[in-house]
């Protein structure tokens, strides 16, 4: 039940129709007994600033930000956490103790547990596909583990910048060894697209990690068929969502609630 005191939370992206963030956060809001609602808004890049201004005027409680707005979210905020500044992108907007619109990035923290569960360790050669906000967060998480990260992207300068970020986070220099881990940090595969052929066909002893979630992509399907560990992005989604919820509300979501909500949605 909503009333005049109900606070607004949301996710902003383009596209955003695939997002299950409303289900995760709505379950956590209900379990915690909070007077809030969480909605999804499809906002084109040219409308992002106006959307944030509108949310501020409405007194929103906070927002998640996804592709393609993560750099813009960091730029529009009045202040930012060290994590968001270091990554160079934000996925969470909230109000700080001084009432300023603040930016945070919970993606890298959300990915750390997933990488551990996949058995990624220091020195592992990793190919990271992409150079956007999700790739930057993945580079930081991989660097903190001590992986040797090589980045593949459309622009060589962007790839080099993300590789340098991974090293600043603690990663090792990449060499020409074949990857033990390939991470897809682009939207490719969400609608059945294949990754570049050199990234397909991972097999036994290798790890295919797709930061997308939902129906299995050709990348994950082929890797799993060949005996690789194939993991989608649901673990990262839940991890970053739990951290964002705590940012907005000052309390962790009830344990297991978001995972249960994700399981109910299914692939």
Q: What would you note in describing this structure?
A:
The chain is α/β, with parallel strands linked by helices and 267 residues long. It folds into two domains: 124 residues, Leucine Dehydrogenase, chain A, domain 1 (Rossmann fold); 125 residues, NAD(P)-binding Rossmann-like Domain (Rossmann fold, 3-Layer(aba) Sandwich). Helices cover 39% and strands 18% of the residues. Strands 2-1-3-5-6-4 form a six-stranded mixed β-sheet, with helices on both faces. Strand 1, helix 1 and strand 2 form a beta-alpha-beta unit.
Order of helices and strands: EHEHEHEHEEHEHEHEEHEHH
Radius of gyration: 18 Å
> What profile does the largest beta sheet have?
6 strands, mixed
SS summary, helix count: 10
Q: How many DSSP-defined strands? A: 11
Strand content: 15-25%
CATH topology of the largest domain: Rossmann fold
Structural class: alpha/beta
Distance between the termini: 29 Å
Give the key terms.
Rossmann fold; 10 helices; alpha/beta; 267 residues
Explain the layout of strands and helices:
Elements: E1 7-13, H1 21-32, E2 36-42, H2 48-57, E3 62-65, H3 70-76, E4 79-80, H4 82-87, E5 92-95, E6 101-104, H5 107-117, E7 125-129, H6 133-145, E8 148-152, H7 156-168, E9 181-184, E10 207-210, H8 218-225, E11 229-231, H9 234-249, H10 257-265
Parallel strand pairs: 1-2, 1-3, 4-6, 7-8, 7-9, 9-10, 10-11
Antiparallel strand pairs: 3-5, 5-6
